[in-house]
Amino acid sequence: MQLRTYCVETWGCQMNVLDSQRLEGELRTLGLVTAARAEEADVVLLNTCSVRDKAVQKVLTRLGELRRARREAGRPQLTGLCGCVAEQEGARLLASHADLAFVLGPGRIGDLRAAIRAAVSSQQREWTGFAPQQDPDALPIDRTGSHRHFVTAVRGCSQHCTFCVVPYTRGHEQSRPLEAIVREVEHIGTVQPGSEITLLGQTVNAYRCPETGADFADLLEKLAEGSGFWRLQFLTSHPKFFTDKLIRILSRIPRRGRYLHLPLQSGSSAILRRMRRGYTREEYLELVSRIRTALPDVTLSTDIIVGFPGESEADFAETLTAVEAVRFGQLYAFVYSPRPRTPAARYPDRVSRAVASRRIEQLFALQGEIQRQLNRALVGSTVEVLVDGPARRGEGVWQGRGDDNRVVNFAAWPGIQAGSLVPMRITDATAHALLGEPVQQPACAAEALSGT
């Protein structure tokens, strides 16, 4: 079988995005080039997420679509399932999907070439678990097509929240050496100056350099000494690791992004205890107060799980009042779904789907109004925007994000380029996006946003 083209499809978090860039880097070293569509590629990799059941079901649906397309076209294709679903359910999926060439867990990306060789020889194999001799950060990364770059600080997670599958699919926490992270960021700044750098970890602020013992605040302070990047961000912070030292360092380093993701998960201390989160409602709100005192310009976002086992109406009401108190700039909420091997999957007192759906709609309605108010308050201000590219909302409309992670839509103009930094005057706002125009309006700018 002659392999010339590939396609990688990605579901899930920023860690998955970075893993996909590693997979693409490996494929390119094999001489493969990207195909326009998965249905036209010789090698298709589905890089998956298993944090919620809905994401798993989407992947299974996609496998069926690719199988039908392959049969209709009458052409061979290697399909590999990668990521957390592969780690969690690899053996079962291989047994039930004869057309699946291999499964490759996130800890085995370095075995991609061997997996492809085995598949070409008609060997259907499972590559899961964690290979201690492999360093995924030493693999080539294909960073083309983006000016927002992810850099791993911490792999895995050791917190074992009762709802979360990550420790089982990505392993326990491992921090990278500080100097290795600094070198990678400096390299990106040299090759693609003006980029946004986001440090990644499931609990990124639990970072501890294995060589020097430096903590996350030390890492940020060291990176801030460098140049070549636009803004420095990080995902995802755990509230119990957000120290006063970290807040102090953030308040004084240059080129700090004004966006901070700080998962709450629930506004009820009783539910947080059942989730094994390690903080109370009161401790979270007090932390937010300390952060905003030191960083008054920060935009906070969060994650909320609705319908966790045992969540009463009173518990959910506490979540609503916490959201009202904090006024998050962005909120990501999900109905609880039990995940394999997690303690919460065995908890009694399940919340019905109907009740959970009603609650999440109520939460989204509240958050939508908060975001509308916060975004409307920015009308008339000027925001520096990193241009991403064409938006999906209409012909001639492009989008970018400010350093607070808010989306800004604007009319394109001749010569516009992704990766540009453009000062934008905010002219209007919705709950989910800002509308802007460049401070120095190009003479030939389209009127694409008129009437919105």
Features:
6-stranded parallel β-sheet; Transcription Regulator spoIIAA; OB fold (Dihydrolipoamide Acetyltransferase, E2P); 12 helices; 5-stranded mixed barrel; globular; Rossmann fold; 452 residues; alpha/beta; disordered C terminus; 19 strands
Question: What would you note in describing this structure?
Answer:
This protein has 452 residues and is an alpha/beta fold. Among the domains are: 5-127, Rossmann fold, CATH 3.40.50; 143-257, Transcription Regulator spoIIAA (2-Layer Sandwich), CATH 3.30.750; 382-438, OB fold (Dihydrolipoamide Acetyltransferase, E2P), CATH 2.40.50. Helices cover 34% and strands 22% of the residues. The chain is built from twelve helices and 19 strands. It has helices at 14-29, 53-73, 84-96, 112-120, 166-169, 178-191, 216-224, 244-250, 269-275, 281-294, 313-326, 353-376, and strands at 5-10, 33-34, 43-48, 78-83, 102-104, 125-127, 148-152, 154-155, 174-175, 195-200, 229-235, 259-261, 299-306, 330-335, 382-390, 397-401, 407-411, 421-429, 434-438. The strands form five sheets. Strands 2-1-3-4-5-6 form a six-stranded parallel beta sheet, sandwiched between helices. It has a five-stranded mixed barrel with strand order 15-16-17-19-18. Strand 10, helix 7 and strand 11 form a beta-alpha-beta unit. Helix 7 runs parallel beside helix 8 and helix 11 packs parallel to helix 12 (353-376). It starts with a strand and ends in a 14-residue tail after the last strand. Residues 443-452 have low confidence and may be disordered.
